[in-house]
Q: What sequence folds into this?
């Protein structure tokens, strides 16, 4: 069994599909609800499990990637709520989606 990566280096970042991160940013621009991006989050969780990432590593990486999005760099409560919602979905999908 492959051991999980020990840090959040460039190799680890590749565990999350960057097009999914960009699509989440697009969803933020159109004021989508977190539930609207559940399929993207499921894809990221599957990729993380395939790479044997620990859930803590996935969450740290996901939050880092979200923070890099221009849409997330705001004090707008709606955007903060969206980010919080997608992080909650990420946790649920990591543990719940095993199809």
A:
């Amino acid at each position: 069994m492959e051991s999980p990566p020990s840090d959040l280096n460039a190799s680890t970042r590749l565990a999350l599909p960057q097009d999914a991160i960009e699509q989440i940013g697009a969803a933020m621009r159109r004021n989508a609800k977190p539930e609207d991006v559940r399929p993207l989050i499921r894809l990221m969780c599957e990729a993380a499990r395939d790479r044997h990432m620990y859930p803590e590593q996935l969450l740290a990486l996901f939050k880092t990637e979200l923070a890099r999005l221009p849409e997330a760099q705001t004090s707008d409560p709606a955007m903060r709520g969206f980010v919080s919602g997608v992080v909650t979905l990420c946790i649920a999908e990591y543990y719940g989606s095993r199809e």
Observations:
- Helices lie at 10-13, 18-29, 38-50, 55-68, 77-96.
